Amino acid sequence: MKVRIGTSEFGGTFYSQGLALAELFNRTHSDGDKCVVDTTLASIDNANRLDKGEIEFGFMASNWIGRAKDGTAPFTKKIALRMLSPANAGPIFFVTLAKSAIKTVAEFRGKRIALGPRTSGMVQHTEVIFKVLGISFDSFTPMYLSFADGAEALIKGDVDVQFQCPIPNQVMTDLSRRADVRVVPYAAGQLEKILSEVSFYRKVTMEKGAFRGATQDIRQAGVVNVIVTHEKVTEEIVHDMAKTIAENLDALPKLNPLYKGLKDLFEPLRTRGPTAFAFGGVSVHPGAIRAYRQAGWLK
């Protein structure tokens, strides 16, 4: 049977990570068991597709998996997710044209901001961040555009700011090549407030030269992204995918730099056991536990 991975829109972060994982999986599987990458609306959509049996694996931001498990908004029912693996921890950030008068996130009131598709996890991120910062959605104009369309709108001047997913992603790379852009920093105290009030964010540094227009190191909030499955997915399928990841912790970053640091995310397994991957209270699938035990990550 085909093994399906739900990712994101074409060219998005999850999509590019899914391609790399599928490539490695397919090297050791026959045509009938090949892994295929499905384009989706990312985190929330992937959870719902898993529940419907439309995919076997899905990329999600870790902040949504506990909500899916509990059936709390934006989910309308409990979804029996199971953890497969962390994927990466990367910055989510705002970008504007270099000539823009906007200096910090504190100046977003009255602006037009491209947030991503309306049902995407990126929109949920902005709701969390803006709630902490006291920025009401009524105080600016939210634009629910795909990432590619949002970048195009920024270039044309139809929006003032775009919310971007972790780099490297093709949309951001193309945007920076076509226009003079810069990252919008948080105002004094804003990032610290976000990190102190939201448990699933981590402080990360976007390095100078990450893309054209990134002229200095800049601190941003980062979220741990994960790969999940469903309790009804067979142990053998999950085992094979987990085995692919565990055996390629050095190869994955070479195929996609977003996986840089993945091995570091695995290290807590040695001391904490499977609970190290139980983000949001979602337990690790038995098939993954078996694979990680065989690979020496678990006793």
Q: How is the secondary structure organized here?
A:
Blueprint: E1 3-6, H1 13-26, E2 35-38, H2 43-52, E3 57-61, H3 62-70, E4 81-97, E5 112-114, H4 121-133, E6 141-143, H5 147-156, E7 161-164, H6 170-178, E8 181-184, H7 190-197, E9 201-206, E10 218-230, H8 235-246, H9 251-255, H10 262-266, H11 268-272, H12 286-294
Parallel strand pairs: 1-2, 1-3, 5-6, 5-7
Antiparallel strand pairs: 3-10, 4-7, 4-8, 4-10, 9-10
Helix pairs in contact: 5-6, 8-12
Core attributes:
single chain, alpha/beta, D-Maltodextrin-Binding Protein, domain 2, 2 domains, ten-stranded mixed β-sheet, 12 helices
Description of the molecule:
This protein is α/β, with parallel strands linked by helices and 299 residues long. The chain has two domains: 158 residues, D-Maltodextrin-Binding Protein, domain 2, CATH 3.40.190.10; 134 residues, Periplasmic binding protein-like II (D-Maltodextrin-Binding Protein, domain 2, 3-Layer(aba) Sandwich), CATH 3.40.190.10. α5 packs parallel to α6 and α8 packs parallel to α12. The two termini are 31 Å apart. The mean pLDDT is 94.
